[in-house]
Amino acid sequence: MSDKINKGAINRRQFSQRMLLTLGAAGASASGLLPNSVGLAHASSSDVSLLINQPYSEPETLALCQKSTGVNAKAQYISSMTEMFAKLRAGNTGIHLSQSSSNFTTFPHAGGLMKKLDTSRIPNFAKLMPEFRGQEGGTDFGGEPFVLPVVFGVDSIAYRPSLTKRPLTKIADLWDPAFKGKIGMPAGSLESLIVAGVHTGAKDPNNMTDDELEKAKAALIEQKPLVRSYWTDEGEFRANLASGEYAICFCWVTALQLAKDGIDVEWVDSPEEGALGWWDGLFITEKQANTEENAEAIYKVLDWYLSAEFGTIVAEKFGYRSTATITTEALQAKNSPLVKQLSLDDPKKILGPAHFLFSIGRPAEYQKAWDAVLAA
Amino acid sequence: MSQTSANMPASGGRATAPLLFRGKQLPPLLIWPYIALLVFVLFPSIISILLFSFWRSDFVSIDHTFTIVNYVDALSDPVYLTILFRTMIFALACTATALTLAFFFVVAVFRTTNSDKLRNIIFLSLAVPFLLGGLVRALGWVGMLGNGGLINIVLLETGIISEPIQWLLYSWFSVWIAVVYNTFQMAMFPILLSYTAIDERLQDASRDLGANGLGTFLRVTVPLTMPGIYVGGVLVFVVSVASIVEPRILGGSDARSVAGSLISDAMLQAFNYPGGSAKAILLIVLIVAAIALWSLFAERKYRVFSR
Predict the structure, then answer these.
(1) B100-129, pLDDT tens digit by residue?
(2) Alpha-carbon distance B126 to B130, whole Å?
(3) Is the distance from CB of A98 to CB of A53 less than 8 angstroms?
(4) A320 and A253 in contact (C-beta within 8 Å)?
(5) Helices marked H in A70-140
(6) pLDDT tens for residues B137-149?
(7) Is the Cβ of B169 closer than 8 Å to some Cβ of chain A?
(8) Which of B40, B59, B147 lies at the smallest CB-CB distance from A27?
(9) B30 and chain A: CB distance < 8 Å anywhere?
(10) 3-state secondary structure of A285
């Protein structure tokens, strides 16, 4: 182009205009203003891309999936549901299947990001535990299924008996002054406030009234001097439990993996007030599955995530529970102690007393309450 | 000083321009790619935040009707104002600490050795920790300051304490240490540049005229280093105000609440981009105002711009 300028083929004004247009297009493309279909250009119609947490889609897990289904499933990892929502809402069109937790499904649905499921194309759907079917506002919207729950569990209390000096049985122990400076709580507006809601007796911790929210906020402010830190990810609570910074922590069941390293850690599966129940599921993204071949591959992957093969992997590696009864049958056939440990033979024991996490009704108010806790 | 300026050539204060820029002026056309870079790369995020701040969100969708309600909400929210005030005080404390440490570090290195090689090794070695990412550096402080961290272990083993010191970690103290550590170089290098440009004869003259060491330091060394202190102050302050990683990793239950975390949570947890954007714009305005005050002070007291 500079040659043309020198030769007088274009003048400076024209050069400047072209330069601006070129940079403008590059800037717009980089900022997501222009559609980006490059990611899809190389994908085969039998490839399936997932937006999912790493434990559910490690390379060896997806290799087994491919072996069973013949479908090449590829994962893009996410660390939170808000990250999933932000990516899909920003037009991440390369994704066929996305994960959503029970406490988040209303948002991608309301955002028009989900495609209705045809459960007749998922043979293992027949093995899905009845507790995970037809949850309006969770798995279903308007009576139609949109999300397939594949794994469930509870968030509860992990503690170090050598530090607490007594067995713990209730969420109220998180407010015990005896553990001052040794308590870990989740960061963020969703979980800590819900835990506080359970502690203060809110009728529906996912949808607290103003009074209930105020009580939960006050409980967290009262608890604040006792709290060592608010953890932001799994690595943080595990490291703090391992080092003894936390004697007691409201967290995920993966804390039990510390026992493999010889650390004394106990898990309260069913505290007196009830644990927080959750499930993780998969949904088909609205912008995908346009071709029959592609849809077939997607449904094969969905079905595999309800298989005993996947259920056994997550149970043995992470202590998570599959939502399909065939995993229980497979583990029983192997005489696995996990059947009892995870109460897979009697899931009601876990599900009954748990407060299930569903999408909170007023995220802005919850966030405001959480900000007030931090500022107190 | 103004006489010296008056005697300098009009080309910008130097008798001869560096070789690279000597010769005829470059074509004005070549400025356009850089202007375009500013417009299309640096400004869009700010413009986008500004636009969002005048819209509304209901978590799932954005209402693009113009409104100033996000600003009204933010300015009438005592929680936001408390956190904003707290963040400013914290950033000022970090800035003052980093500048003081950096200044005396530079002076100490120059006063204790005449070897240029040793000085270069010392200054360059300060960059080594920055080969690691900010998150890893913050996590390094957990290992240093925790109950089972190096400091507590040494103090316990030597019998100086009988219980681990809790406030070393998950407190304002740990966040302050980490932010100062991360911004020390930003303060030090501009000060180093200013300090090395001081004509030592001015300090000698001060002493010859009867000033003692402290007088020379306060009336000659500090004022002549002021351009570096000014630039370092701006850099450290801006980074300290915007710090998110250190409060999150090291802040525990108290020191987590800084403006950056509040804005990030509003956008990423509550998906209130407009509300978070208004808070971000207000923070930017406050930062610019603080820098303007600092500039006014530096110019009036030390003439950093007009020397």
Answers:
(1) 999 999 999 998 988 989 999 998 888 888
(2) 8
(3) no
(4) yes
(5) 81-89, 106-110
(6) 888 999 899 988 9
(7) yes
(8) B40
(9) no
(10) strand
Q: State whether ipTM is beyond 0.85.
A: no
Name the B residues in 260-299 with CB < 8 Å from any A CB: 261-262, 265-266, 268-272, 275
Contact A12 B33 (CB under 8 A): no
Residue with tokens 């003439």: B303
Lowest-pLDDT choice from A225-229, A366-370, B5-9: B5-9
For CA atoms B129, B130, B133, B139, give the dihedral sign: positive
What's phi and psi for A115, nearest 5 deg? -110, 140
Of A229, A245, A366, the CB nearest to B253: A229
DSSP state of B128: G
Alpha carbon distance A303, A57 (integer Å): 15
In the three-class reduction of DSSP (H, G, I as helix; E, B as strand; rest coil), residue A276 is classed as strand
Largest CA distance in chain B: 73
Nearest partner of B52 among B276, B304, B230, judged by Cα: B276
**Residue B183 has which token pair?**
């911004």
3-state SS class at B209: coil
pLDDT computed for residue B19 by the predictor: 55
A244: nearest CB among B40, B79, B148: B148
What pLDDT is attached to residue A346? 85
Element containing residue B70 per DSSP (H, E): helix B69-75
- DSSP bridge pairs for A376: none
Structure pTM?
0.79
pLDDT over threshold 80, residue A325: yes
Q: Contact, A125 vs A250, CB < 8 A?
A: no
Task: Determine whether the interchain pair A375/B36 forms a contact, defined as Cβ–Cβ distance below 8 Å.
Answer: no
Q: Give the percent of chain A with pLDDT over 90.
A: 60
Supply A304's token pair.
């595999």
Best of A87, A229, A360 to substitute, by most chain B Cβ atoms within 10 angstroms, is A229
> Which domains can be identified in chain B, with CATH numbers?
77-302 (1.10.3720.10)
Report residue B307's pLDDT band, with 50, 70 and 90 as the boundaries: low
Tracing tokens 């005592």 back to the chain, one arrives at: B78
Specify whether the CB–CB gap between B180 and B94 falls below 8 A.
Answer: yes
pLDDT, tens digit, 9 for 90 and up, residues A88-145: 887 766 889 999 999 999 989 988 899 999 999 999 999 999 989 999 989 999 999 9
Burial of B129 per CB tally in 10 Å (0-12, 13-18, 19+): middle
Residue A136 is classified by DSSP as B
